[in-house]
Amino acid sequence: MNRRRFLTAIPGGLLGLSLRPVWAEATHLTALEPRPKGPPLALEDIDGQHHRLEDYRGRVVVVNFWATWCPPCRDELPSLQRLWEQLRDAGLVVLGVNVGEDADRIFFFTADYPVDFPLLLDQDSATIDRWPVRGIPTTFIIDPEGRIAYRAIGARDFDHPRLLERLRALGLD
């Protein structure tokens, strides 16, 4: 079974905290029922092009909040790229929302982690504050009606067949 290890703090132990391993399946998505409407998202990408979530109504959208300094974010970026390559012709949209960094930093970062889906700039963290993000990476799957169908907190293998099947079931061609 493909799993990733996450550590969480629990009461007790050194300085009031101890660490214990928590295993999260790398293909797990949490379904949100009822599906809440996706919060506002209106940002520029690193090329200066505007993207608004509402512009993608009628399509399945993956919104991934990440940062270059985040190791799990770096781990999952290649799988997001492969997901994009596999399903973009079926109508999937992938938006990587970088939190707190500028276009130059992201541009140089993509030399080592090449992606060709839009990388959006949330430099002042105003957008991430509107979304139910508990940490990064956090990813939301938006259904064609603009509602949050799934959430994933932590890195995932986004090109895994189980995740591809769930995305297709939302209405991809």
UniProtKB/TrEMBL annotation:
Localization in the cell: Cell envelope
Alphabetical list of CDD domains matching this protein: TlpA_like_family (cd02966)
Chain coiled-coil ranges: none
GO terms classed as biological process: cytochrome complex assembly
Classification via InterPro entries: AhpC/TSA, Thioredoxin-like_sf, Thioredoxin_CS, Thioredoxin_domain, Thioredoxin_ResA/DsbE_sf
GO cellular component, one term: cell envelope
UniProtKB keywords: Cytochrome c-type biogenesis, Disulfide bond, Redox-active center
Record domain Thioredoxin: where: 32-172
Keyword Disulfide bond (UniProt): yes
Any one GO molecular function term: antioxidant activity
Recorded superkingdom: Bacteria
Pfam families in alphabetical order: AhpC-TSA (PF00578)
Entry protein name: Alkyl hydroperoxide reductase
